[in-house]
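Tokens in:
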């Protein structure tokens, strides 16, 4: 089998027209260059160079072989240049998955700004609450909402995901405002069935974590649909602020039991362990960190912040 290093050294000798010239260009010894060419000729079983005390010339076989070696050297140089440019500017296709509600409300609206910032990137986004397999399904990264990222993936925390117990002003005017967690037993508590804690709301009170049994006339597996039922005055629900932030800010929903904040989760960007993280992935994670952060706009007052116009 041909040693590609020997082939590249041979091409350098031809270009420099001498062993010493090639050695000087490459910063190695002349004897190393000479041994490399001799080894290549022995492997091929032909003479590539005619050597004399005054000049170096190619044999007929050597001339034909040099064309192939030079082509390989050019391809390697172009490959190095391509890799270098990819490390300087995000480009290519970025493939990721993201949970349905969060990506619809916050990731998809952010893509225009991201792609205008990096015009050489294209995006392939899968909206799904399923935990995709990054290796088997060929994803660069995934966005996941969880208390802890878990698994053998590298995780970057992008923003807190907070939940609040809320109801419409009309519902509270009719049924009263609960003052303590045990008051929830007297209310129509609408349950989100996608979580594994159906029938219980896990809260953090002055005395620590508590689990409060709840029941109501509606059970539903989609937070956005659940928020619409709450806006309609049907009952109370424990909803993420990334969905209802604007409704709370506008007064269309009212938070109750603010002293009993539900256990926090977070939105994470997860990717495979990679010593050399692709620039497109790093650029996207950094962009989302700037856009969301520890105090995301949906948890801040003001319609301007909710719309993300200040980002």
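Residues out:
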């Amino acid at each position: 089998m041909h040693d590609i290093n020997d082939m590249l050294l041979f091409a350098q000798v031809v270009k420099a027209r001498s062993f010493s010239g090639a050695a000087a260009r490459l910063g190695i010894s002349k004897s190393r260059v000479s041994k490399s060419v001799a080894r290549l000729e022995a492997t091929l079983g032909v003479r590539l160079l005619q050597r004399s005390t005054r000049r170096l010339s190619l044999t007929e076989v050597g001339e034909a072989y040099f064309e192939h070696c030079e082509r390989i050297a050019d391809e390697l140089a172009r490959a190095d240049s391509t890799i270098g440019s990819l490390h300087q500017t995000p480009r290519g296709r970025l493939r990721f998955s993201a949970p349905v509600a969060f990506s619809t409300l916050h990731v998809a609206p952010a893509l225009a700004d991201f792609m205008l910032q990096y015009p050489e990137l294209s995006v392939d986004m899968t909206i799904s609450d399923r935990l995709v397999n990054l290796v088997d399904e060929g994803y660069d990264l995934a966005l996941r909402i969880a208390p802890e990222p878990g698994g053998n993936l590298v995780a970057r925390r992008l923003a807190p995901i907070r939940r609040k117990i809320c109801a419409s002003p009309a519902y509270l005017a009719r049924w009263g405002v609960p003052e303590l967690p045990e008051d929830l037993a007297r209310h129509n508590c609408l349950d989100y069935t996608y979580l594994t804690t159906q029938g219980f709301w896990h809260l953090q009170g002055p005395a620590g974590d508590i689990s409060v049994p709840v029941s109501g006339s509606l059970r539903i597996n989609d937070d956005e649909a659940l928020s619409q039922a709450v806006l309609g005055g049907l009952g109370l629900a424990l909803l993420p602020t990334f969905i209802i932030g604007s409704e709370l800010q506008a007064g269309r929903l009212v938070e109750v039991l603010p002293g009993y904040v539900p256990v926090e989760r977070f939105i994470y960007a997860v990717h495979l362990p990679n010593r050399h993280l692709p620039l497109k992935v790093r650029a996207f994670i950094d962009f989302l960190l700037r856009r969301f952060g520890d105090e995301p706009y949906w948890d801040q007052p003001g319609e301007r912040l909710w719309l993300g116009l200040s980002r």
